[in-house]
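Risk register update: the risk of archive-format incompatibility is retired. Evidence:
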Amino acid sequence: MLKIVLFLLLQVCFNQAELEVKICGNLRYGHTMGAAVYDNVDHIWFLGGYQLPLPLVILDTVVRYDVNTYESEIVRRFPYGIYYGAAEIDGNGEIFHFGGTTRERRNEIFNFNETNARPRIVNYFADGVNAMSAVTVGKDTIFLFGGNADPDFDPQAIYLYNTTANTLRVVARLPISLHSLAPVYDGKKVYIFGGMENGVKRFDIYKFDPAEFTIETLDLTTSPNFPISTAQYVGNNQSILIGYNSSGSAYFARFHHSNETLEDLHVNSTILTKLDNPSSAYVPKTNKIYFHGDDRMISSYSTSVYCLELSAGNSDITCPSEGLHFLPHPTNCSLYYVCNDGKCLFNSN
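Archived output:
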């Protein structure tokens, strides 16, 4: 009888746990391989990308999307169409775009802000590079990882770009040549997920120290078993990883920074066909991850902006190392956690 009761409790708990991907507005163009940044106020900026159906069009657009109204408008244009670049915003509200592809790999660093009329070139890499990954640390530091590069660019390089001084230097190297990584910063360390090596998808997780410029490979008991397309740090020692599994269906996981463990995240994502190269941003005030791009419809990309709403709280917990335990939710007495031998089977947040 006890087993039946426990099973029912787990079923109820898992039913409560399921999150859902919804459509939160549309962009004018359905595209993939663009970049996205949140300006820490009301807008997500979608930069570049390419669209289908054929003939392929490389976009020169900078689209400003309002997280309150779900409306979007083209507010800037690059000098040329560009996709597969990286973008970040620093602590001064300055947006930067790194590398990318037109018909060839680019080496420019662009900069603009809310008042600039047009993105302007402020610096250059030694050679063309696309598929870099970027993360902001502090007020004026952006770290750049890897890339798919021309001969004079080191695809193992970890760059530090100082946005105030406009200086660029290599401070460390990745263990192997990688591109299309998904980095997040939790206030202390940068965790770097996935990536590709010579066209082969990787499932590694690296930890980079932005103060000491050291990097290590994590040896997890449970490693990601799906290609990671994008990741967002959502506060409270947690990141959400988004990718797709072997059948092409969207796949979600939660990474706990406090004990460096990974768990599957139960998400209803039936509105997605296949998620491959989305651009994404997390907005704390709405507690949503917004993403756009490449749900792999046969002849075109969806114009939809998708959003994953994370329930309030997102508190991290420590499970007892042995046995089955039901732990109270810190703020909502109608919810609870289930722990089994040290693993959190369900976070009711």
